Amino acid sequence: MRNPKTKKSNARKQRRLSEVEEIELLDAWIESGKPDSGSNPLAFPPPPPSAPVGRLADGGFSPYVGCKLFQQLPISQKTKDGLKRKYTEMSEIQRASLPHTLSGRDVLGAAKTGSGKTLAFIIPVLEKLYRARWGPEDGVGCIIISPTKELAGQLFEEFKFVGKYHSLSAGLLIGGRKDVEAEKERVNFLNILVCTPGRLLQHMNETPNFECSELQILVLDEADRILDAGFRYEVDAIISQLPKHRQTLLFSATQTKSVKDLARLSLKDPEYISVHAESVTATPERLKQIAMEVPLDQKLSMLWSFIKSHLRSKILVFLSTCKQVKFVYETFKKLRPGIPLKCLHGRMKQIVRMAIYSQFCEETSVLFSTDVASRGLDFPAVDWVVQLDCPEDIPAYIHRVGRTARFASEGKSVLFLLPSELEMFRKLQAVEPKIPIQLRKANTQRMQSISGLLSSLLVKFPTLMELAKGAFKTYLRSIKKQKDKEVFDLFKLPIDDFAASLGLPMTPKVRFIQQKTKKNTESEETTDSENNEDGSRPASDEKQHLEGLEEAEDDVLFPKESSVEIEDNPAAVFPLKKPKKKKLKINVLRPIGTRIKYDDEGNIIPPLAALADTQHVDVLVRLDKVKERYEKLKEEMKQRDKEDKVLHRQRLREKRTKEKMKLKRRREEDEEDDDGLDVDETESGVPKKSKLYFHSDDDDANEKREDVRLKTDSVSIAEQEELALKLLNSMHS
Ligand code: ADP
Ligand code: MG
User: Fold this and answer.
1) Ligand 1 within 6 A of 301 CB?
2) What CA–CA distance (Å, rounded) separates 575 from 595?
3) Would the N or C end of the chain have less CB density within 10 A of its end CB?
4) pTM score, whole prediction
5) Which residues surround ligand 2, an ion (CB under 5 A)?
6) Could you identify the atom of ligand 1 that is nearest to the CA of residue 115?
7) C-alpha separations of 171 from 128, 147, 175 in Å
8) Which protein residue's CA is at the shortest distance from atom 9 of ligand 1?
9) Domains, the chain, ranges and CATH?
10) What are phi and psi of 55, to 5 degrees?
């Protein structure tokens, strides 16, 4: 009788050979039919669905440019098997971009929200690594960057779905995990990293042997957002550590055209693929959009009335700030509208955020959210997107409304605009391609006013009172911070009526408004010429004035940008939060030489004078010398530091290469000898998953998350952990 071990080993060898053959075929097929640079595959006539696929009788290959079905693409059987459980026909962006991305080109892809951009980058990533026969010992082969944790989670799930039959490993690296140590140990054995910028940078800076010098492919989802000012520090630091020779893919519904941005990424002759550029509308066709003029003090009553009259709809409501979200959620919950309510914002714990995200995927409910939910998220079947507060600009509008009417489904959206914000409507109308939006007057007769109810709630619950004040202040601050002054004008807002509409007994004091009013009165007394016709401050003056107050305002309630999610950002140079208690502490972040010293009388000694002997007359001369020496020392240290770093990197690289070679040899030996490891054959000959997936949440969090995860065909966290351990053990033994 034949030894079962030999049988297994033969099967494995066979599989490896057939993989090698498949890869050779794919390489030749892709090479034979790749589209010209700059050409649009959508312009090619699609081959009929029944046409032969792959190698043809005459030795050539079937054409794939212009094809409509995933099965007609030059991609591995494993990817095809992963796809066919849900996807058959390609969407336009997929048809247009895949022939280019599979050929290894850099691509900037733009297509409307909900049009299937995710698969347009997941497929080339899997294929690139598969065709390179990427294994665990090869380390990080692909990095995908997402602006938010929820989106990263969603991309990760889609990777697991489509990549089910591949033996690549993927990890989700997002902020919010208390213990990153475990992650650090494993991160080098992962092939695909799906991450938010902050967390990735943290690993780059802190994980001792983090290596991505072999990176094959970099993807930025929501690329324009990743490249905008909010992530500049992180993204520049990340890019500087990536090898230049790589494939880069950028996708978004509102693509960046800034040459500067693209230069930062050192793209090589990128293909610009914009499938909806000639489209009549910039937003999905099945999306009905209206704008409604609503005075500030009626917004909440209007929202309440809207929810009450749409109790069977799934509604996503966008507000400007975390505190507003909290306030509206908490008060509306107490008023019991008759539909489940949820809230999502950047100040929530990661585990709760993920749970809310998943629940909203499944349940008909109302979700109040900041812009953390505005990009990329694929909530199924959202009926209404309500923008209670005006978006900061047109891309923000497009992404928010894009949470509904996704892929083939329908959706509606309503934008609330203050009378002073109507300019936004005109701007939306002027966009090319068009945003088909209609302006309606609010029907206030059917509106149920809730300010009375809110004020009794606030009297009863002091915490709600605090929330209301917070909502009030942060909203005004958000308006103040907006860049587009044609739309957002703080001084046109009916502040007292607004406070009353939140149920507040008095208008809270907001320093920047009071000072403005005071200054206004003063200047009215002196001269009129400094003010505009409406009595407001001239723009430049106002800017200075507001900037000056920025620091005076001690209540730092706001994210970096008005609509930016705060990411865990341990790499930031300055601490984001102020310490709560004033403890005597050595601030290690303070720039050198700025420590304040006092003499015996309590006078401040200038920084360098403290070093000098003040008894002598030549203090200045000596000071100069001290300074000179100090500079020289600093320079030397810098230089030495640089050298050390280079040396350290080199050593690490050598070490890793050695390790890699060893691991690769061992893997091949294992495959040859069949040492009866955990890998097993299934009937189809497809190996059982040897993947190593992990989430970056803490363990108890993971348990809770099990209940609320997206329903994809995935191994449980426990299984993933077990697999990871097995794999690691087998590598270290
Ligand atoms: P985008 O990133 O362009 O906003 P997504 O990639 O999130 O869009 O896709 C939107 C929805 O369409 C998802 O639910 C996805 O599963 C679905 N989808 C994508 N491609 C296809 C396809 N080829 N066939 C059917 N559904 C698809
Ligand atoms: Mg997307």
Assistant:
1) no
2) 18
3) N
4) 0.75
5) 117, 376
6) 3
7) 17, 16, 13
8) 116
9) 4-274 (3.40.50.300), 287-349+378-501 (3.40.50.300), 589-660+714-733 (no CATH)
10) -70, 135
The model's pLDDT over 639-682, given as tens digits with 9 standing for 90+, comes to: 887 777 778 777 777 777 777 777 767 665 554 443 322 222 22
Task: Considering only the C-alpha atoms of the chain, give the largest distance between any 2 of them, rounded to a whole number of Å.
Answer: 108
The amino acid occupying position 78 is K
Q: Which atom of ligand 1 has the smallest separation from the CA of 70?
A: 23
Which residue's entry shows tokens 């978006």? Answer: 391
Cβ within 8 Å of residue 525, ≥6 positions away: none
Pull the structure tokens for residue 5. Answer: 């071990």
Q: How far apart are CA 252 and CA 157, in angstroms?
A: 19
The Å distance, Cα 219 to ligand 2 centre, comes to: 12
* Ligand 2 centroid to residue 289 C-alpha, Å: 21
Residue 219 β-bridge partners: 144, 249
pLDDT digits (tens, 9 = 90+) for 280-325: 899 999 999 999 999 999 999 999 999 999 999 999 999 999 999 9
- DSSP of 143-208, one letter per residue? EEE-SSHHHHHHHHHHHHHHTTTS---EEEE-S--S--HHHHHHGGG-SEEEE-HHHHHHHHHHST
**319, two tokens:** 């507000």
DSSP 85: T
DSSP code string of 359-404 = HHHHS--EEEE-GGGSSS---TT--EEEESS--SSHHHHHHHHTTS
d(CA 276, CA 433): 9
